[in-house]
Amino acid sequence: MNDQLIDALEWRYATKKYDSAFELDPKDKATLEQVLQLTPSSYGLQPLHYIWLEDQKLLEQTKNLAWNQQQITEAAAVLVLCTLTTLNSTYLNAHIDLTRDTRSMQEEQIQGFRAHLHTAVATKPDHEIRLWNDKQAYIALGQLLTACALLKLDATPMEGFDPNALDELLALEEKGLHSVLICTIGKRAENDRYQHLKKVRRPIKSLFTTR
Q1: Could you tell me which CATH class the domain 2-87+124-207 is placed in?
Q2: From CA 160, how far away is CA 14, in angstroms rounded?
């Protein structure tokens, strides 16, 4: 498994050109959804929502908002990673109730956690919550990219788009959401020259110390 993981990460790269004839297997799509469902998040709050873009008109409009990056209209799948703009008491209580019921706990067993979340999270101003939630999206993206590599699916993470314009296009604000990242998924085109470039990374010894 160790070699399989490293080989997959060596194989992957930020694909620039996709095979537009390739279609994502529904089983792979379902697996990626499970991967994102299982992604870690602070307190397990999952302040995330994912949008599969399939409508051709929306894809073209999104491409325009992403400086015409061709991957958006060529890839087999396009996923927008969104985060909640607030974490209110209703959301926190729903999460705590789900935790209690999933683990067959009594209310008195989870009262401390409930009180802590309301003190530590509900009192934060919205701008801090939004920044905190956005960081969770990057955790999800990392897990998604690794999963794609293991499934031999190409993927391209994108920050290069106008998030406010995409929020407006997808009517996200009224849903309490904000777009943070886009990830295109599919199969690399045979003539994408970037797949043949050597991966550039600093040596391991320069990245780690032991204290």
Answers
A1: alpha beta
A2: 13
